[in-house]
Amino acid sequence: MTPAINLLKQSGIAHTVLSYHHDAAAESYGGEAVQQLGLDPAQVFKTLLATTETHELLVAIVLVSGTLDLKALAAAAGCRKCGMANAEAAQRATGYLVGGISPLGQKKKHRTFLDASAQALPTVHVSAGRRGLEVALAPADLLQLTGGCYAAIGKAR
Residues 6 or more apart from 88 whose CB is under 8 A from it? Predict the structure, then answer.
């Protein structure tokens, strides 16, 4: 079990764990999850870490088919600007490997922002903490467990 799944079990929140064989040659971790599990891409989200000008790490959860709007994230976080965190910092702060970073059960608590598009969905899929492992849960439950909020931070590719 991953820390994300353990957190879900301890909290008693309804969720479904889905797994697939991860292909190390896959171009996109999220895209691979969509394809391997036959999921609706409008319900599959990726977890990204960004850093502010004061070096605060932020968790941004956006659709796998889109990209993170760093200006919108900065506005939502109330800072001047954001940039993507480097992989080593993201892994160190979350306890997860890139491609398997879950917004749940991270080593340290970070301010978390879920793209506003998730508000209209009954269920979202996010990484369960390992490449090849996804978890489905209600977006409100995801925000409850992360202490996060909705923000219009995603944009189409």
Answer: none
Look-up of token digits 């977006």? 139
Write the DSSP symbol of residue 99: T
Q: Residue 19 contacts by C-beta under 8 Å, 6 or more apart in sequence?
A: 132, 133, 134
Closest by alpha carbon to 125, among 55, 60, 64?
Answer: 64
Report residue 59 as tokens: 């968790």
- State both tokens at 139: 């977006």
Q: Quick check: 7 and 29 in contact, CB under 8 A? A: no
Query: pLDDT (tens digit, 9 = 90+) per residue, 80-118?
Result: 999 999 999 999 999 999 989 999 999 999 999 999 999
Residue 71, SS3? helix
Global pTM value: 0.94
Q: How far is CA 18 from the centre of its chain?
A: 15
Cα angle 124-125-131, degrees, rounded to a multiple of 5: 165
